[in-house]
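Exercise 7. Given the encoded structure of a 311-residue chain, write a plausible sequence.
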């Protein structure tokens, strides 16, 4: 029960990142929001890593080339693309497309590492793709023939592609989850600092912007990671992975509570995407993709699901 509460709250906070991020980018640049999110979260995450993981920091820093690459992909690239997309599409659309990440990750694992998923996984990939196309085109599939996807749709597709690459590479390293995340966040803040200074990306001055940034730092950036990793000490990563479907559900609920309309196309697309994720996960557990023996999960678990969590 405690693990279920932790996972539910973690996904609720991540859903909040889509909604609050969508509002924040109306007045803040994606670079400004990305830099301050990680700059303000870096020190607390490093402290959490020391308290919970107690890592050998010298051994951690020996993996700096891979950690830097992961930071550029997952912390900098994905987050910049996500917030840029939220400036052009709805939070619900973004969360529904992002929910297809497990299927895309599965495809990359097959292409790069020749993994052999079960047939159910391929059915899940097909359903997820159908749902994403339905959401992206608004039910007007003929738009694909003319390549008339909008900027927000293209940006969120780029974001999940970068995240899929990040996830596949992240499975190749063996650091504890919070430690790995904390170091990547700190690296992102350092890398982005000169660019943020050159572009004048200072701290927000308007109260609404400050509250949005504070929410993103405290809840999606710190709270979700801590709750997620605490849950993984009490349940399997495979079970935890199923809770990721709640992100799109919570985003839809928040959208309704805010009085914004939800279309039939979004509902149908969401059902297809989430059904596809369940089938993909079900196909992996009994005989699906396995990781190389030389690597370990960042949560000290044999499953890669912990790396599917969104940022």
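Solution.
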């Amino acid at each position: 029960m405690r693990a279920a509460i932790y996972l539910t709250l973690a996904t609720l906070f991540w859903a909040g990142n889509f909604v609050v991020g969508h509002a924040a980018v109306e007045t803040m640049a994606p670079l400004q929001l990305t830099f301050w999110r990680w700059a303000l979260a870096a020190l607390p995450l490093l402290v959490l890593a020391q308290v919970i993981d107690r890592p050998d920091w010298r051994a951690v820093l020996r993996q700096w080339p891979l950690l830097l690459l992961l930071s550029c992909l997952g912390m900098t690239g994905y987050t910049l693309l996500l917030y840029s997309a939220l400036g052009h599409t709805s939070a619900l659309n973004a969360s529904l497309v992002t929910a297809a990440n497990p299927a895309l990750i599965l495809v990359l694992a097959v292409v790069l590492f020749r993994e052999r998923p079960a047939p159910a996984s391929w059915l899940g990939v097909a359903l997820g793709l159908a749902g994403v196309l339905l959401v992206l085109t608004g039910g007007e599939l003929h738009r694909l023939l003319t390549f008339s996807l909008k900027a927000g749709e293209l940006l969120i597709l780029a974001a999940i592609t970068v995240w899929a690459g990040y996830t596949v590479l992240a499975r190749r390293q063996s650091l504890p989850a919070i430690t790995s995340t904390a170091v990547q966040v700190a690296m992102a803040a350092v890398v982005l600092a000169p660019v943020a200074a050159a572009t004048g990306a200072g701290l927000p001055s308007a109260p609404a912007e400050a509250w949005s940034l504070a929410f993103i730092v405290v809840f999606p950036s710190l709270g979700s990671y801590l709750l997620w990793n605490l849950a993984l000490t009490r349940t399997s990563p495979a079970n935890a992975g199923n809770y990721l479907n709640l992100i799109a559900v919570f985003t839809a609920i928040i959208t309704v509570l805010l009085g914004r309309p939800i279309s039939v196309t979004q509902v149908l697309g969401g059902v297809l995407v989430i059904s596809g994720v369940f089938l993909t996960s079900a196909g992996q557990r009994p005989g699906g993709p396995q990781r190389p023996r030389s690597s370990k999960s960042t949560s000290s678990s044999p499953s890669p699901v912990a790396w599917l969590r969104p940022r």
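Remark. The chain has a mean pLDDT of 80. Students should compare their own answers with the one above.
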